[in-house]
Structures are given as structure tokens and as C-alpha cells.
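Shape matters. As here.
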Amino acid sequence: MVIRRYWRIAVFAPFVGFLLAAGVAVVMTNAGSGETEFRFWFVVRSMANYGAIGLVIGAVALLGGLAAVAIADRHLAKSRRLRVTVAALGAMGGVVLLSVAIAAVLSLMDDGLYAGITIAFGLAFGAAASVVAAVMVLYAERLSR
């Protein structure tokens, strides 16, 4: 039942993550100075790199949100507000869990200096993922009526 209602989110969430991260890359690299052709290819490379990271974050947020909704409301019998809130918290939890896992791997590789900032970025990306997840679940709930 959960998959039937949220299949659109499962299809579009990684692409939304890619597009949002690519948009961030454009904003970050657009203010660069120098030769125009070099800047164009720098923007394209940055869009691809940031987009790949956004794709992974979108997929992890999708898994976290779907798992949280499946745990909290398996038969989709509770209120829409609960499902939206739980999906947002699950998406943030999935992204933060990924960042904590990456920080643990960095610490094991004797590079624990970047563990704190990795978790901080995970919190920021998780906040963005939770907003996007809430909007997507709210949209899916409206379509299912």
C-alpha cells in the first residue's frame, strides 16, 4: 500500500536531489572569474559532481522516508499530517545516518579531522532533504484523494 501511494516519489526523488545539487553547483561556481570557456566547463563538471552527490542523498532520503512511513503507518490509516512529518524526519534521519557512517569511515582511516564537518554537512543536507520530502509526500497525499 505504501509503494502504491508513493511510487512517484520513488521515481522522482533521486532526480530531484540531482537537480537541486546541480543548481547549488551553478550558484556556487557562477560567481567565478576568469576565462569564460574555462568557467563553462568548470560549471559543467561541478554540476556533474554535485549532482552525483545529490543523487545519492536523494536516494538515501527516499529510503529513510519510506522506512519511517512504513514503520509509523503501515496501513496508511493515520492522518496525513503524521505521514508528512514522519517522512520528513525519516528523510533527515537517513541523510544524517549516511553522514555519520561516512564520518566513522573517515575516522577509521585516521582522518578524523573531517568527521565533524561531515556530520555538519549531513545535518544541512538532511534539513534540505526533509523539506523536499515533506513537500513530495504532501503532493502525493493530495493526488491520492
The longest helix spans residues 36-72.
